[in-house]
Amino acid sequence: MTTELLLPFKLNSTIELKNRILMAPLTRCMADENLVPTQAMVEYYARRAEAGLIISEATIIRPDAQGYPNTPGLFTSEQIQGWQKVTDAVHANGGKIFAQLWHVGRVAHPHFFDGEVLAPSAIGIEGSVPRMRELTYQTPKAATSEDIQSLIADYAKAAENAVEAGFDGVEIHGANGYLIDQFLHYAANEREDEYGQTPENMSRFALDVVDAVISAIGTDKTALRLSPGAYFNMSEDNRDKAVFDYLLAQLNTRQLAYLHGGIFDDSMRFASLEDMTTSEYLRANYSGTLVGVGSYSFESAKDAIEENRFDLIAIGRPFIANPDYVSRISQGKELVVYDDAMLAELI
Ligand code: FNR
Ligand code: 8K6
């Protein structure tokens, strides 16, 4: 079967992907007690090297970034060495892999680290850590200017660590209600300094992180995920669109490796985005390489790319169920249907 989806795509002058299918970042909570990738994770990623690009599960940049059990890190030498085994195995199988850099902000829980929960403002979320009902979320501390500068520096350091660990680049996790996204939405950001109140100020943290990572590892290796529509741990606000309009205009001047929408179902329309879907809104406002995602099948992704609605597709749950996703769809073979029960082990 020949289709553009299965042909090579140049992200930029230094990175060429062998096809347009990305494995979406998928948290699996399977790292060891020191948040080091295990041998089972090495094999799990190596089995998926047929993807044009694997994006790693979200990987925390420092201890207070953690909100779920056993999520891997990229801040100790042991973690860097653990990831080196993953990237070596993916490369040995002819694949490429980016690390997704993560700080959960107010979704963190001090059960996992010593210290405070940091966020743009002291606005908590309801509920508790998934599958750990006794760990209810706390009201975070509004980050001080010094906290913000140290967070930015730690994203850059984690990006350097990723390159040291052999990753081909990084995707900054700016989506899904976590730290960077919290700065971008009025529901979580009530700051009165240069990081709040206006679209320009609310975009500043995201842009500072992007620029610090670009300075550390170069623009060709730097990508970003954004969720312009608030949908996860966050409420929608019609003022948010102006923030993303501003942010995307700024990102258009930066030549990122790609921009990736964060959404579970890209047919969902957002009132706060004038009734557009995530990919429609990003395509209309962002001029660089765009990755679509969210409940796509091979067929619907093929149509979307032929219709120029985005350039690359990220596939999540089907990749959990089918390590050989790319072979199966290229050969027209049936896919194993994803089930949440599959999250219990790494196949
Ligand atoms: C996710 N998703 C996700 N997103 C992200 O940016 N970082 C992450 O670590 C995770 N983790 C994660 C775990 C699990 C179990 C699921 C199901 C999803 C979201 C994921 O990248 C993707 O956007 C969605 O799964 C939608 O794509 P599919 O699954 O419909 O192809
Ligand atoms: C987004 C990161 C979540 C990390 C937790 C991993 C385990 C949760 C598995 C549940 C998968 C179901 C996906 C549906 C979530 C809907 C969110 C809007």
Topology of this protein?
Elements: E1 9-10, E2 16-17, E3 21-23, H1 39-46, E4 53-60, H2 77-92, E5 97-102, E6 118-119, E7 141-142, H3 145-164, E8 169-174, H4 179-184, H5 199-217, E9 222-226, H6 240-251, E10 259-261, H7 278-285, E11 290-292, H8 298-306, E12 312-315, H9 317-321, H10 325-330
Parallel strand pairs: 3-4, 3-12, 4-5, 5-8, 6-7, 8-9, 9-10, 10-11, 11-12
Antiparallel strand pairs: 1-2
Helix pairs in contact: 1-2, 3-5, 5-6
Bound molecules: ligand FNR and Octadecane.
Octadecane binds next to loops.
Organism: Pseudoalteromonas neustonica
Protein name: Alkene reductase
Domain NADH:flavin oxidoreductase/NADH oxidase N-terminal: 5-334
Task: Give the overall average pLDDT.
Answer: 97
Low-confidence stretches: none
Helicity, as a percent range: 25-40%
Main sheet overview: 8 strands, parallel, barrel
Q: N- to C-terminal separation?
A: 27 Å
SSE sequence, one letter per element = EEEHEHEEEHEHHEHEHEHEHH
Class per helix and strand makeup:
alpha/beta
DSSP helical segment count? 10
Rg estimate, integer Å: 19 Å
Percentage beta strand = 5-15%
Question: Which sequence of strands runs across the widest sheet?
Answer: 3-4-5-8-9-10-11-12
Shape designation: globular
Bound compounds: ligand FNR, Octadecane
Q: What oligomeric state do these chains adopt?
A: single chain
Number of strands: 12
